[in-house]
Amino acid sequence: MVGMDWRARRRYWARLLVVGGGGVLISVVAYLYSAALERRVQAGEFQRLAHVQFRNAQDLLDHSAQLLLAFRGLFMATETVEREEFARFAREMLPSYPEVLAVHWALRVPHDERGAFECDLLPFQERRLGIFDVSADARLPVPAPAREEYLPIWYTEPFEAHRRVLGLDTLARPYNREVARDSARLGVQRTTPVFPLLQEPDGPLAVAIYQPVYRKGLPLATDEQRQQALEGYLILMLRPSVLLKALSFERLAMEVRLYDLQDGQPVAIHPRGAVPREPGERVVRYPLAVPGRQWLIEFVAPQGFGGLSASIQPLLPMLALLALTLVLLLFLERSHRGAIALERLNDELLCRQRELDALAYYDALTGLPNRLLLFDRIHMALGLQRRQGGRLAVCVLDLDGFKAVNDRFGHQAGDLLLKDVAQRMLAVLRPSDTVARLGGDEFVVVLSGANDAPALDGILQRLLDRLSRPIELGAGQPAVSVSASVGVAFAGEHSDANGLIREADLAMYEAKRAGKGCYRIFGAGRAAGL
User: Fold this and answer.
1) In the chain, N or C: fewer CB atoms in 10 Å?
2) What range(s) does the GGDEF domain occupy (predicted)?
3) For residue 414, which phi and psi values (nearest 5 degrees)?
4) pLDDT for position 489
5) What is the pLDDT of residue 262?
């Protein structure tokens, strides 16, 4: 009896050992697999979030550089930009650019004009130094020694916060001088390395983006001509650390570092003294393009990212190990399905967001601005005309013969024709002009600065000529030809976007009745005024 009890007890413990050991093994394997899957999901989410914020950072930099082009347009539109006009324009524009620290206007001053310039400058300066230089650490301002020419800051906005820099010769620092001269020589924007600010020497470092402004009417074909025609620089001040604070990482405490690539080697911008890390599961890098330079943005996941889960499944009694194994397997399956569903949902949402952004402002077929963006551009152009004068022309263009091509060769050929027409129009028009598609074969062109009748006629004639050339449809299809009828309307004092498009549309039908392939201007009185 005792022997049988012993044998039964042995079999019982053996069963417990097999069930308990199997349950523990399955539980550990399931836990490790779930942890690895969670790490992969976290890594994917981290990389997606980092890429989204990289794109946001690049968009902010591109957005900031556009502000310099707006200010350059102000200087090109008027003969002389006065201080109050500069300040008024800055007050209108800067609220839309919170990442911008300041905008300066540095005027080119020959040595023989220094005295007169300083007489005008002194009443505005916080320290009456005239034209001055500053030490490398931005702590010691001193009057500038005699030089052949100077490029002191003449205007600055916001004024009170940056009044201290008025009169600072931007060419005094070696890296500023090299960047500024390169910008003037090439006629493009260029960015300096980081440097401390005179306004806050111990604060975060800053960079300056230089935009050359040339005197009107002078030739700019060669480097020497551009240097001689230089009137001054528009300077955009950015603090990269402030730029990075605009990025949002939800609840993930992600570390962001910024480096300047100098001769292929990363030099820390923010935080100071940062050392680049090797890319991996917790570290990703992306190149950031700034005018004339390349930065490197590095995202570092927080400590503990990708480690073992903090919640350890409690060990159940040995008699419950098999039930625990089944529960863990079901949890693993649900966790796996949930992760896949979440990943798919995120991908669909990102894709949908990109589609909605494109549909909101741009025509899906041609890539041109749509009606919403067109009306916004017309509104901005009307506001600029009311502030600065000049003349704004809105043209409605309708293709002659498009329906015949569409009916004969099909909608696919018609779409190819519309894409080709859009590219031809962009090739003819100036960068400051806007061309948009209203729908079908109807387009709208917004021409600013349409004061010169021969110039306007030349643009329209080149447009009509380019559109009348044969278009290859490809795939063995014969070349087709269409023409365009254009109606032109000029903005008056009380014009609005709807009225201008309506008047141009009426003029366009006049062009069609006149034989097509030509343009007509709305209103005999306005035509005479042109």
Assistant:
1) N
2) 390-524
3) -65, -40
4) 94
5) 84
Mean pLDDT along residues 14-26: 68
Beta bridge partner(s), residue 232: 107, 213
Residue 169's closest CA among 101, 80, 104, 81? 104
- Give CA separation, 150 vs 168, 188, 189, 522, in Å: 9, 20, 20, 50
The structure tokens listed for 200 are 């806050």
**Could you tell me which CATH class the domain 371-529 is placed in?**
alpha beta
| CA–CA gap between residue 297 and residue 285 (Å, rounded) | 6
Q: Are 467 and 484 in contact (CB under 8 A)?
A: yes
**Does this chain's domain 78-243 share its CATH topology with 371-529?**
no
CA 115, 117, 120, 123 torsion: positive or negative?
A: negative
Do residues 102 and 158 touch, judged by C-beta distance below 8 A? yes
User: Among candidates 197, 203, 213, 20, which has minimal Cα distance to 106?
Assistant: 213
What confidence score (pLDDT) does residue 56 get? 84
- Tens digits of per-residue pLDDT, 287-327? 988 988 899 988 888 776 554 444 444 444 555 555 766 66
Each domain of the chain, given as residue ranges in start order, spans 2-53+316-361, 78-243, 249-300, 371-529
Q: How do beta strands 153-157 and 132-134 pair? A: unpaired
Question: Which DSSP state fits 438?
Answer: E
Angle at 81 between CA 80 and CA 84, to 5 degrees: 140
- pTM of structure: 0.53
Tell me the CATH number of domain 78-243, given options 3.40.50.12780, 3.40.640.10, 2.170.150.70, 3.30.450.350.
Answer: 3.30.450.350
